[in-house]
Structure prediction request, 161 residues.
Amino acid sequence: MTTLSRVPDEELLRLDHQICFSLNTASRAFGGVYRVALKDLGLTYPQYLVMLVLWEHGGLPVKRIGEHLRLDSGTLSPLLKRLEAMGLVRRERSAADERSVIVRPTEAGAELRERALAVPRRVAAATGLSVAEITALKSLLNRVTDALDQAPRGGGACDEA
Prediction:
């Protein structure tokens, strides 16, 4: 395994060597595929993610939805308001804790799930990857995310790549 210290600095500064650039361009490409796949559902990608969480877990406090999606309440609140205006979710104060808002799919939101069933297959097919490759890529991305979450934020150097 090559260590980063053995790679010349000039090489590390090349755009085509930047993992963040590759991840960003892949993310943008996914966005385009999702935009088309979600058009018939009338959802944006962030709205789709919220609905995925609710379809999987049922009603949840806003805080828990944010934890699942790694979104803060300032980003999540407008999404939830829009989904509520669309008639797909209902927000209500928790009886147990007035500070907590529970979000539940409405009947229309639950019915939308049936129409969304084809989306994951369409997106997976668009990648051109096999199921095994998708699984391996997802595992690697989860490892990268976990490592980055643990990385010092002070600009410390890494020894291995």
In short: Residues 55 and 110 are 7 Å apart (CA to CA). Helices lie at 9-12, 19-39, 45-57, 62-69, 73-85, 107-116, 119-127, 131-150. Residues 19-39 form the longest helix (21 residues).
